């Protein structure tokens, strides 16, 4: 158990929320969402670098979690041999009939919500707010468990971005998360059901 305390004796936990490694669809610029594709050679190498970074920094995790999607599970397994739990709540945004299609078909961002908004609902997918709610509900439930002082969770780009928007303004995200490529790690602290963004960690900077 890793006990971390704030001033005043309030218990604080740490969440390392990570985007999975590069996949074939990432490389081909295809919409991935609820569909899947294998990690590339670069993706495997980058995941191993993340594992080496955690060891170098002496970072040990009480628990590890992954999306149920293969690319996230594989990423986690290349990082660590630690047992982990798969959760559907950490899955990527479902893009409906656009799954597997070219990223050129993605709509423009909703100028107010700074995301795809409700666009994919009409095509059998999810809205941005649906993704945000299930990510926040899932991560809050994880971090509220006993003996969860430092947790690693591997998820996906769209899902992680919507979680970020729950806790940071779009302006803050642009200022503080300047590189959100595959294997980016978003560090948060958690206390009293609230997440606080700490920093983004990128494999290319190791």
TrEMBL record:
InterPro entries: His_Pase_superF_clade-1, His_PPase_superfam, PGM_Phosphatase. Pfam families: His_Phos_1. This is Phosphoglycerate mutase. It comes from Ligilactobacillus acidipiscis DSM 15836. Gene3D superfamilies: Phosphoglycerate mutase-like.
């Amino acid at each position: 158990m890793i006990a971390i305390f704030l001033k005043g004796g309030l218990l604080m936990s740490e969440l390392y929320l990570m985007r999975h490694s590069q996949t074939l669809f990432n490389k081909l610029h295809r919409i991935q969402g609820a569909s899947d594709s294998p990690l590339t050679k670069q993706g495997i190498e980058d995941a191993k670098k993340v594992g080496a970074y955690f060891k170098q920094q002496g970072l040990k995790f009480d628990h590890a979690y992954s999306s149920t999607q293969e690319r996230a599970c594989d990423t986690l397994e290349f990082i660590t041999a630690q047992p982990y739990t798969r959760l559907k709540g950490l899955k990527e945004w479902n893009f409906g009939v656009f799954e597997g299609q070219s990223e050129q078909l993605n709509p423009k961002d909703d100028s107010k919500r700074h995301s795809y908004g409700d666009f994919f609902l009409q095509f059998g997918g999810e809205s941005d707010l649906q993704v945000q709610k299930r990510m926040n509900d899932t991560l809050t439930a994880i971090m509220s468990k006993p003996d969860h002082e430092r947790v690693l969770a591997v998820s996906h780009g769209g899902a992680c971005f919507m979680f970020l928007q729950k806790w940071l303004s779009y302006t803050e995200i642009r200022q503080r998360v300047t590189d959100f490529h595959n294997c980016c790690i978003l560090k948060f602290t958690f206390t009293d059901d609230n997440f606080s963004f700490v920093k983004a960690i990128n494999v290319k900077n190791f």
